[in-house]
Request: fold
Amino acid sequence: MNKSVAYIGLGSNLTTPEAQIKAARLAINALDNVQESAFSSLYRSPPMGPQDQPDYVNAVMAVKTDLSPMALLRCLQKIELDQGRVRKDERWGARTLDLDILLYGEHIIDQPDLIVPHYGLAERAFVVYPLQEIAPALQIPGKGAIADLVSRCPLAGLERLA
Ligand code: ROI
Reply:
């Protein structure tokens, strides 16, 4: 089977965020046809967007998979729900777990429920710094080298956790 490398962004700011990220890592590894190839440090950052919510814990994970992008997305959405995510009407509100497909090989995907590379990737310190940690030579389709994205992205309070 032909495997692709996908990068997944993990984020949480409710209900013991570090534990949510660690549980999600295990759940992703338990998926059939998905194998972890790298996992970044955990990072803490103030919320981007509405400020009346707790700080986030974020990480980025690389996986090898032969699931299609849509099949992978459905699996990640199920893990979000299993970990108690409730979809609220408020845009950019607090969440127990957010799993985003950041990149899927070299693919550029533009579908109603899946945009890859992730639309906000280049502006999000909590994505580009962990991504550079695990893939320092990465080229992002349509956006350039990860090192250049990092150099243009202020830390915005991002801290690597011990
Ligand atoms: N802010 C931070 N720091 N980390 C996130 O994962 C995150 N996720 C979001 C919004 C609400 C945009 N803000 C965030 O979805």
Q: What stands out?
A: The CA atoms of residues 103 and 117 lie 5 Å apart. The pocket of 7,8-dihydro-7,7-dimethyl-6-hydroxypterin is lined by residues 11, 45, 47-49, 56, 58, 92, 98, 126 (CB under 6 Å).
